[in-house]
Amino acid sequence: MKSSSFWLTSKKLILVAHRGGDGAGTGKENTLIAFKTAQKAGYEYGETDVVLTADGQVIAIHGTRNKIDSLFKKGRTPRSLLQKMTLAEIRNKIKIDGETVPLLEELLKAQPKMKFFIDAKTDEVVEPLAKVLKDLKAVNRVCVDTFSYPRLQRLIKCLGPLEPATCVNIGRSARIKNKNLDLLKQGKLKVDGVHLHHSLVSKQMIDLLHSKGIKVLVWTCNSPLSIMNAAKSGADGIISDRLELLDQVLAR
User: Fold this and answer.
1) Please, which of 63, 97, 106, 242 could form a disulfide with 79 given CB 3.0 to 4.6 Å?
2) Looking at the domain assignment, is residue 104 inside a domain?
3) Could you tell me whether strands 215-219 and 237-240 are parallel, antiparallel, or unpaired per DSSP bridges?
4) pTM above 0.90, yes or no
5) Domain around 242
């Protein structure tokens, strides 16, 4: 793990606009206007997911594994389908509350002062994502993360000596079944931080992670209870869609 300029040097909570947050509207996640609005509201950090198109473009979009989701439902197109579509086809068929699906490159260029957590959603996006980050010289202002630790290791290898900040996601699965949590307990998880689902948050869990030198960012905190629990339990950061609510609860 590397001490990266990505992380705040103060002890302030890292507040993260999840997919840009809802400042520009609840349906505009992962759009340029969402991140622009978050930055104007004082957010230094954003989070986005990336997928590779059929013509090799890295797009900022969530997608889903659910094959029955509507093609036109707020960008929730199955990732398996997104990967079979070209950028032009995606932009022609998918609008996110009227907004165009952006390239990651466009997002990084549009928000040069913002830092990003970037979730590589598929194996196919790993090498192209590394290339975009290298070409834009953006490695120092991103943290690469994923649910798959082997995928993260591949991404780190692709970036080589640039040594990005790194996180893995620990999700809603029962703790004893969660692969990343098992790797953590075995001392095999070599990352700067974890994104811990809010349902798993406790002071004991966060203390355990901190004892291993790992930062803890809690996702996705969209209720007053989850926001306060994360803060009181000692989290290093909170990831939320509901930016105004986050500000209100933390009296920011």
Assistant:
1) 63
2) yes
3) parallel
4) yes
5) 14-249
